[in-house]
């Protein structure tokens, strides 16, 4: 079965995708000889990702070369993660009729662990889920990532979240997940308070093993290190002036 995603790496027993036709459901390995699933959204049908039917609106596949910025100034990327204006990515368009709190959920294919799972329930396998995100604009809402497991009766498990303006640049997120059964990963964009709040994602990966040196998940509300230094300088000056009185 052909997949439009880019898949690369070395042997990885156990990483499978489950697909369906109109009459039957077929469990097919993404590629039994390769280690890493990598989707850059360059081709349709977006690596077998699907739009959640129970959300408020959909993610949009676009490139900077074709995107209309007439109604969304000062937000969104000027190119894909590699910097190419012809490259594609997925993003949420937050112009009207979207309203604050609206959610768009993009769901991955269903991945299965190895049929003969050597890990056992007490020692589940580890996978590194990664992606690049672009969150630029004064009205940026929230980007969430969830783990959705087959047979799970509770709500999806949150594994990563970030809120607010992160600057006009692509950044990478990585998070280790430990599914106990067949699973999907879900990327959810939540619309902020205004139209300058487009959120984009690119280069989604899933690889066996724990994440190595995952980037920190810093909230945009946290002051940068330079702010702390400036505050220390102000405190030192105040202390010095008080001592001279």
List keywords for this structure.
245 residues; mainly beta; Jelly Rolls; 7-stranded antiparallel β-sheet; 5-stranded antiparallel β-sheet; 15 strands; 8% helix; globular; disordered N terminus
Account of the 3D structure:
By secondary structure, the chain is mainly β. The chain has a single domain (6-219), classed as Sandwich (Jelly Rolls). It is built from 1 helix and 15 strands, in the order E-E-E-E-E-E-E-E-E-E-E-E-E-E-E-H. Strands 1, 4, 6, 7, 10, 13 and 15 form a 7-stranded antiparallel beta sheet that branches. It has a 5-stranded antiparallel beta sheet with strand order 5-8-14-11-12, with no helix packed on it. The radius of gyration is 21 Å and the shape is globular.
Q: How many structural domains in the coordinates?
A: 1
The CATH class is Mainly Beta
Shape: globular
Q: What is the CATH topology descriptor?
A: Jelly Rolls
Low-confidence stretches: 1-13, 18-34, 218-234
Q: How many β-strand runs?
A: 15
- What is the overall number of helices? 1
How much of the polypeptide forms β-strand, as a percent range?
A: 25-35%
Helix content: under 10%
Category from helices, strands and their pairing: mainly beta
Named CATH architecture: Sandwich
Q: Mean pLDDT score, rounded?
A: 77
Distance between the termini: 81 Å
Q: Work out the radius of gyration.
A: 21 Å
Give a brief description:
By secondary structure, this protein is mainly beta. It is built from 1 helix and 15 strands; from the N terminus they run E-E-E-E-E-E-E-E-E-E-E-E-E-E-E-H. The N and C termini lie far apart (81 Å).
């Amino acid at each position: 079965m052909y997949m439009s995603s880019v898949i690369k790496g070395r042997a990885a027993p156990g990483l499978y995708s489950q697909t369906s036709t109109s009459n039957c459901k077929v469990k097919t390995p993404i590629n039994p000889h390769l280690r890493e699933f990598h989707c850059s959204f360059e081709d349709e049908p977006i690596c077998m990702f699907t739009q959640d039917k129970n959300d408020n609106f959909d993610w949009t596949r676009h490139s900077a070369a074709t995107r209309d910025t007439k109604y969304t100034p000062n937000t969104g990327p000027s190119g894909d993660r590699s910097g190419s204006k012809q490259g594609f990515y997925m993003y949420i368009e937050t112009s009207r009729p979207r309203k604050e709190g609206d959610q768009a959920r993009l769901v991955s294919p269903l991945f299965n662990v190895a049929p003969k799972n050597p890990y056992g329930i007490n020692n589940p396998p580890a996978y590194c889920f990664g992606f690049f995100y672009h969150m630029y604009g004064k009205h940026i809402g929230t980007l969430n990532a969830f783990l959705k497991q087959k047979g799970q009766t509770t709500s999806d498990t949150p594994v990563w979240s970030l809120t607010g303006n992160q600057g006009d640049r692509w950044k990478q997120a990585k998070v280790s997940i430990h599914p106990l059964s067949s699973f999907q990963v879900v990327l959810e964009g939540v619309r902020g308070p205004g139209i300058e709040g487009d959120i984009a994602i690119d280069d989604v990966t899933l690889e066996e093993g724990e994440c190595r040196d995952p980037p920190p998940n810093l909230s945009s509300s946290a002051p940068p290190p330079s702010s702390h230094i400036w505050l220390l300088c102000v405190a030192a000056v105040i202390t010095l002036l008080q001592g001279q009185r």
